[in-house]
Amino acid sequence: MSVACGFECVVVLGCMRWVWKRCTYIGNDDSATWPPATYDEFEPIPRLCRTILAVYEDDLHNPKFPPEGGYKLNPNWAVKRVAYQETLGNAPPYLIYLDHEHHEIVVAIRGLNLAKESDYKVLMDNKLGKQMFDGGYVHHGLLKAAIWMLNKESETLKRLWVENGKSYKMIFVGHSLGSGVASLLTIIVANHGDRLGGIPRSLISCYAVAPARCMSLNLAVKYADVIHSVVLQDDFLPRTPTPLEDIFRTVFCLPCLLFLVCLRDTFMPEGRKLKDSRRLYAPGRMYHVVERKFCRCGRFPPDVRTAIPVDGRFEHIVLSCNATSDHAIIWIQRESEKALARLKEVTAETTTTPPPAQKIERQHTLEKEHKKALERAVTLNVPHAVPIDAEKEPLVYKEEESVRGGVAEVASLIKGEEDASTSTGHSTDARTNWNEVVEKLFTRDETGKLTLNKEASGTE
After folding, report:
1. Crossing angle for the helix pair 140-163 and 428-441, nearest 10 degrees?
2. SS3 for 90-115, per residue?
3. Is this prediction's pTM over 0.85?
4. How far apart are CA 79 and CA 54, in angstroms?
5. Which positions ≥6 away from 237 have C-beta within 8 Å?
6. What confidence score (pLDDT) does residue 322 get?
7. Angle formed at CA 252 by CA 247 and CA 255, multiple of 5 degrees
8. Which residues contact 57 (CB under 8 A, 6 or more apart)?
9. Which range, of 183-192, 250-259, 307-316, 318-327, averages the lowest pLDDT?
10. 30: phi then psi, degrees, rounded to nearest 5
11. pLDDT surpassing 80 at residue 452
């Protein structure tokens, strides 16, 4: 009897300890050891959030829902706004904006519309491990949407970049569902910049706001030099390992889902998570905006921390009443504005070297952090992770799994082209260009199946 009572006490104490740790875990803990971000690297984020908000407007000359201070955009520089009627359910609405002030070509993609069935179709078009791409796994539906956009707008983007002296940056930015599309679009463009007039990787960047978990860990780390994710405090989406399609099936009972996921992940070892090659993560370098503290009421002046985490990459669910509100683009825009103003004040107080020297030094620091993250991914045996030296070598597919993944990748590319060919405004030249990309790496055998062209892949 005494043994049974003792066992019950141990179980009760263990449960109480678990409840205490989960209930006292806050979003601030995820980035407690990260270094602060600098003003220069965080500066684009608030204005890009405004650009995302502008996608929701039908007419930028007469905006109906402007944020505080307005959109700060020149309506005459808006090249194209594509609504649901034009995307035909293949991708979320987006805006192409030519920012002459900052010398940027911006493609802004809106987030999930809970009232649109087409957005759900993009979201639901996925299963764990369904789509292999570039040596890792990605969300199948988001990849198809990215390829559709590229087939439709590649000629427009190429023309804008060439006409502006081949010096403008090309920035892809999206919120929630759009962040996943923007991230995968960036990966494709970064690898095939020659198809957009020869734009170098250094002029390509992506900002995933309230990012969706859309790619495997090796890809998330590999492209941390061009993809930047922005997370506001307790946002649920980057922390929820449950597939996106399951999250939004239960969106009206989200607290129940978060609790169950929290309970499940408690008993899943960290090593098992890292070795699951199909598990998807938020992409790239992380920027965490922190504005609340434990057992404190109200919002504090926000701090911004940044890192390229490999283990502990927003893996813990935060049981917070702000988990959904922190996902809203309007709140992210407001808090990022405050954070930028705070960073500007801190920079002005601590500046001891000329700004150009600071930028160069910071760039070297970011490159070192990226290299260390790649090395740590290899050390932790993350599936498909390769050291930075191997990234510079020619692309050679040696494993059967990689070949199968490449075939799936090309199949989705072709499917995207077929979808794009049915839409209006799509040029024949763009289709030809992307067919050439496919033919470089793959050929068809006698049965008509796609097979790896090893000679072409070895010379790429």
Report:
1. 120
2. CCCCEEEEEECCCCEEEEEECCCCCC
3. no
4. 13
5. 176, 210, 211, 212, 213, 247, 327
6. 85
7. 75
8. 63, 64, 65, 71
9. 250-259
10. -65, -35
11. no
Tell me the C-alpha to C-alpha distance, in Å, between residue 349 and each of 42, 342, 343, 355, 359.
17, 11, 10, 13, 17
Tell me how far apart the 2 most distant CA atoms of the chain are, in Å. Answer: 84
pLDDT in tens, 386-421: 776 655 544 333 333 443 444 445 444 544 444 544
* Radius of gyration of the chain from its Cα atoms, rounded to whole angstroms: 23
Give yes or no for a contact between 192 and 437, defined as CB atoms under 8 angstroms apart. yes
Give φ, ψ of 306 to 5 degrees: -140, 150
| Mean pLDDT, residues 360-369 taken together | 88
How many other β-carbons are positioned within 10 Å of the β-carbon of residue 197? Answer: 16
pLDDT of residue 202: 93
The H or E element spanning position 307 is: strand 303-307
373 confidence band (pLDDT: 50, 70, 90):
very high
* Strand partners for 80: 96
Q: How is the chain split among helix, strand and coil, in percent rounded to 5?
A: 50, 15, 35
Question: What b/e readout covers 316-335, taking b as 16+ CB neighbours within 10 angstroms?
Answer: bbbbbebbbebbbbebbbbb
Match 């794009």 to its residue by tokens: 420
Q: Please tell me the distance from the alpha carbon of residue 281 to that of residue 215, in angstroms, as a whole number.
A: 6
CA 282, 288, 289 angle in degrees (round to 5)?
A: 140
State the DSSP code for 202: G
- The yes-or-no verdict on residue 77 having pLDDT over 70 is yes
Q: Which DSSP helix (H) or strand (E) runs through 174? A: strand 169-175
For the purposes of burial, counting CB atoms within 10 Å of the CB of 44, is it exposed (0-12), middle (13-18) or buried (19 or more)? Answer: buried
Angle between helices 117-124 and 140-163 (to 10 degrees): 110
Give phi and psi for 236, each to the nearest 5.
-75, -30
- For the record, the structure tokens of 65 come out as 């829902």
- The conformation of residue 302, written as its DSSP 8-state character, comes to P
Predicted confidence (pLDDT) per residue in 6-50, tens digit = 777 776 766 666 565 556 667 788 888 999 999 999 999 999 999
From CA 112, how far away is CA 257, in angstroms rounded? 19
Quote the crossing angle between the two packed helices 140-163 and 400-421, to the nearest 10°.
70
